[in-house]
Design goal:
about 325 residues, Jelly Rolls, eight-stranded antiparallel β-sheet, seven-stranded antiparallel β-sheet, 5 helices, about 15% helix
Length: about 325
């Protein structure tokens, strides 16, 4: 019996009759063993081989997780952080990064993050750092905004409402580079950075009327001294053990009016109006740690397990030989010459 590609694994009624010419080798089942099997087992074997050759696509677990974030509805919704992380004068490496999901675009500024250079200052051009959405609905992250450079960190990315974006701005002492979703979008020169003398605000600027952020924030971090790897913090999360991390607000507290700084430097914030929300996000909250390896237990080798004495082997063989000779003599004493 032969299985062909056109027989659906069931031979014609006269396939075993004399005179029937078997199909050519090229038309038979490519697996010779299956050609000798009944139709049922042959079909089962083919299905097994197919499942091995073409496995079902795997679903990536953990690509989306449910996390707590902080939602701002505009108005007086805000987080005030005082004292803020120190941003030194002069040349220094400084970085800011966070996740942002705008809820509504309205063609005006929306301050997701704001740190002013002087107490009570209202001019955005005097900001040490500010980030969010610019007046033409573009993602912005500016370090060292002075005079007309307040928009220097404006990117060409127009965000979509209710979609998460990772925003980062890194200053290496001479140039600021702004990233959106891990890709450098704009850069500009900055020779020095003035110090800050005001509170740090999330979702708010106390001197800019209704230019408040509407949407959700998460994973806000500030680095001073050494710049982070943007790709790593975007894809793996912020490592709170980094010594250069000046402040880190995951914004996952979930209850109460306090926003904790997880960097260990105590720059905690006070929440007003904004609400904790649980939703599905695509970002990683905590970086993976290397697995803790437990050393293999040392096997205590004992004397008896590995001891080999040729003398004992010789004596055992001699005893067996003598016993065999005694047995033969006892059976036939006449053979002894």
């Amino acid at each position: 019996m032969y299985i062909t590609a056109k027989q659906d694994f069931f031979p014609p009624p006269d396939c075993d009759a004399e005179g029937v010419v078997p199909p050519p080798i090229s038309a038979r089942c490519p697996y010779p063993v299956m050609s000798a099997l009944p139709p049922g087992p042959a079909l089962f074997c083919l299905l097994c081989l197919f499942s091995v050759a073409f496995p079902a696509p795997s679903v990536s677990a953990g690509s989306h997780t449910t996390e707590t974030v902080l939602e701002f509805a505009g108005g007086q919704d805000r987080v005030r952080i005082s004292p803020h992380p120190p941003v030194p004068d002069g040349k220094e490496q400084v970085a800011l990064a966070f996740w942002m999901k705008p809820a509504r675009l309205r063609g005006d500024f929306q301050y997701a993050f704001h740190l002013h250079s002087r107490q009570g200052g209202s001019n955005i051009g005097d900001s040490v750092m500010w980030a969010g959405i610019c007046e033409n609905n573009r993602i912005t992250a500016t370090i060292g905004a002075v005079s007309t450079s307040w928009h220097a960190g404006r990117t060409d990315v127009r965000p979509r409402p209710n979609q998460w974006y990772h925003v980062a701005a890194l200053w290496d002492g001479s140039r600021v580079r702004v990233y959106v979703d891990g890709v450098e979008n704009v850069s500009y020169e900055l020779s020095s950075l003035r110090s800050a003398d005001n509170s740090l605000w999330l979702g708010f600027n106390p001197n800019q009327g209704n230019r408040r952020f509407r949407g959700s924030l998460a994973e806000v971090g500030i680095w001073v001294g050494t710049l982070p790897d943007v790709s790593a913090i975007m894809n793996q999360g912020i490592d709170k053990e980094q010594p250069e991390l000046a402040a880190y607000w995951p914004l996952d507290d979930g209850e109460g009016d306090k926003v904790r700084d997880h960097s260990g430097h105590g720059h905690h914030g006070t929440l007003t109006g904004a609400t904790w929300q649980t939703e599905e996000v695509a970002f990683a909250r905590k970086p993976p740690r290397p697995p803790v390896t437990t050393p293999e237990p040392t096997v205590q080798e004992t004397y008896a397990d590995n001891y080999f004495d040729p003398t004992l082997v010789f004596l055992a063989g001699a005893i067996v030989a003598v016993a065999a000779a005694v047995f033969l003599i006892a059976r036939d004493p006449n053979k002894i010459s």
